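Batch manifest, entry 17 of 40.
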Amino acid sequence: MSKLKRETKETQIVADVRIGSGKAKVEVDDRFLAHMVETLARYSGVDIELSATGDLRHHLIEDVAIVLGTALADEVPAEATRFGWAQVPMDEALAEAAIDVGGRPYYVGKLPSKLYAHFLHSFATNLGATLHVRVLRGTDKHHKIEAAIKATGLALRQAIRAGDAVFSTKGSVLTERLD
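Output type: structure tokens
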């Protein structure tokens, strides 16, 4: 379990994140953000308890993603499967995501909302993951964003599953935080 608290002049966030069954308890004023965090939890199999407030929608969405990525980075097992890929249809929308949780942060993706592209970028960077997201088709903005979050969640579920060995030619990479 990774419990984080992040406070700035702009946002106040407390999150408890652990690999589990996909349960979510989300308290934020932005209903769509709450829906996307709940969706990410459900599809990834990550349990998320989150309480967040912020001055602007942009700050809230960005900082929630930073906290979720940072907290989940502490939960990824050393023997994680590491890679995941998923394609998700949602009505007329179709999105796919590919992820590598091997410690190389990078994001490539375009969504119909700069805020949610930024959410995924901030999440991937703080998770230490490479994340590629493509919306292949769709007309409804909500459906395209949600399909992308669902695809990211399903790909993440595969990638964080415990394997039987460190899946890297480098072997285990030790990064240690020093006081």
